[in-house]
Amino acid sequence: MPPGRVGARREGEASADEPEPTHLTVRQGLFGAANRSPQDPPVQPLEPRHTNPRMRTEQISLLKADPDLGALLAEPRRSEAERRLLVSTHRLGVGPWDVTRLAGASADHIGLLVIDGVIARELIVADHVSAELLGPGDLIRPWQAASKSELLPVDAEWSVLSPATLAVLDRRFAAEASQYPELTASLFDRLSERSLRLATTQAISQLTRVDRRLKALFWHLAERWGRVGGEGVVIPLALTHRILGQLVGARRPTVSTALSELAERDELLRRSDGSWLLRGDPPDASTLERSPARHARVGDLLRPARRFTRSPAGTAVRTG
């Protein structure tokens, strides 16, 4: 897996200096006409009118930047893939991310792979917002609409919480990667892992009491971003009370109160640099459960209001 994706690092270890953050610029050669066939309809170039002169764009070996993506490749195919699978990278600065400039991306581009940094996607239904945190190893397609449903309006907003590097998996990369089906399997694994994290966050948001939700959420985040320190586990994410509320399904004032309670119990503390410190042991099922009889039978969850059986004549007859 890419560095920092999973596992804890000792607090205080030296890390490479971050390059100066800039905003994402997608050039025509990446998502525009340079990667399209003559039969494709023309698309509007995605390059903004004024390109940031400090934009850092470089080409790297994808498997060197994200070694775990090639975990299923055996030698000598892995070495060959490292040489052939070259991708462009872009830097995103902290702040709102305007993804409308990517709206013209062709559907046959695979997406953007997060190499480092933290990005938040917020889904908005009426005045309620649900957030998702994305980090190293996640594959995103921000040009996709938040929802294709015509019945329930859903909007999406993106923001960068820490300087991020994205690898562009465009049409050219898709053609090269087709020679390595093991890589495709690894990308599907990443999507499955992301789906599991979303389901876990949804389950956390249904726990009783917001202080329990927050404690469970931070231990969940510790699996991916935690660093073991002398005082506990440090979560190096400068998460605001607002976004924490979006992650656990609670209003900001309620989150602030619950965080104060956790701090008084010395279970979760905010450090001066904005990161969080977890103390104690991870919660077990007994500390999170609502009652001993928490396990509902599948039949109870799926039982319809009325049951029907088939009569000898083949018609449905209500039985309850």
Can you offer a commentary on this structure?
The protein has helices at 28-31, 62-65, 77-84, 171-177, 181-204, 210-225, 241-248, 252-264, 285-288, 298-302, and strands at 57-61, 86-92, 95-97, 111-125, 128-134, 139-140, 155-169, 227-228, 233-235, 268-270, 276-278, 308-310, 316-318. Helices cover 29% and strands 22% of the residues. Helix 6 (210-225) crosses helix 8 and helix 7 crosses helix 8 (252-264). The strands form three sheets. Strands 1, 2, 3, 4, 5, 6 and 7 form a seven-stranded antiparallel sheet that branches. Strands 8-9-11-10 form a four-stranded antiparallel sheet. It is of the alpha+beta class. The protein has two domains: 28-183, Jelly Rolls (Sandwich), CATH 2.60.120; 210-290, Arc Repressor Mutant, subunit A, CATH 1.10.10.10. The chain contains ten helices and 13 strands.
Summary?
With 320 residues, the chain is of the alpha+beta class. The chain has helices at residues 28-31, 62-65, 77-84, 171-177, 181-204, 210-225, 241-248, 252-264, 285-288, 298-302, and strands spanning 57-61, 86-92, 95-97, 111-125, 128-134, 139-140, 155-169, 227-228, 233-235, 268-270, 276-278, 308-310, 316-318.
Text of the CATH class of the largest domain: Mainly Beta
Given the structure, what is the number of helices?
A: 10
How many independent structural domains? Answer: 2
Q: How many DSSP E strands? A: 13
Provide the helix percentage. Answer: 25-40%
